[in-house]
Amino acid sequence: MRFAVVQFGGSNCDRDTHHVLAEVCGVETDLVWYKDGLQQPYDAVVLPGGFSYGDYLRAGAIAARTPVMQDILRHAKEGRLILGICNGAQIGSEAGLVPGTFTLNAYPKFISRHVHLRVENDTSPFTSAYRKGDVIKIPIAHKEGRYVAPPGVVETLNREGRVAFRFCDEEGQVTPESNPNGSVENITGILGGSACNVMVMMPHPERASETVLGSDAGIRIFNSMITHIEQHG
Ligand SMILES: NC(=O)CC[C@H](N)C(=O)O
Fold this sequence. Notes:
The chain is α/β, with parallel strands linked by helices. The protein is built from 5 helices and 11 strands; from the N terminus they run E-H-E-E-H-E-H-E-E-E-E-H-E-E-E-H. The strands form 2 sheets. It has a 9-stranded mixed sheet, sandwiched between helices. Strand 1 (about 1-5), helix 1 (about 15-25) and strand 2 form a beta-alpha-beta unit. The termini are close together. Bound molecules: glutamine. Its EC number is 6.3.5.3, 3.5.1.2. It comes from Methanoculleus frigidifontis. Part of the FGAM synthase complex composed of 1 PurL, 1 PurQ and 2 PurS subunits.
């Protein structure tokens, strides 16, 4: 089993994500510079957080148009796992890996704090280590993290079980007050791909993967991916 973490100019969560995968989860993980492309088939590719190309134009817009994305789109088509975290989520949506887009927060400032998420789907390759309804504590750090999509798209996401996470309060209530950035229906984790083999999310699971960081609730995302690969090859 081999993971890749793709580094773009301006990525800044690449090494944290590599640390969690390689040192905490113990899986072989390559840091791949975007210009090198994916030189081999990977079981899973992670697009890490950061400020690729300074968030110019729109966050993720420039990275989404680099040639390595063709390799990543091909990996997604082949059913391999793709996880986009924060700026990686923005890049993934810009590249069309999931419907909808991430735009300026409702209160248009950078927000960096812990939030709570409710797990909405516990059968996907990214969320099987949770139970539906679990409430997890995890950090966010973004300015362009408000998920928006047309009503018909949101309806399809709901109907097909493609909402992985919603912002909620400590008790798991999904309310406008527990929505830090104004995302539609508090959605912040979206499943894409024909077999839900793509997930993008604004919160940072790699920053919640060791108890010393205040929460290890995020590691179950990486563990779910590892279990899925072990079971499905
Ligand atoms: N932590 C990150 O990945 C930064 C997110 C992003 N570029 C934003 O501010 O919207």
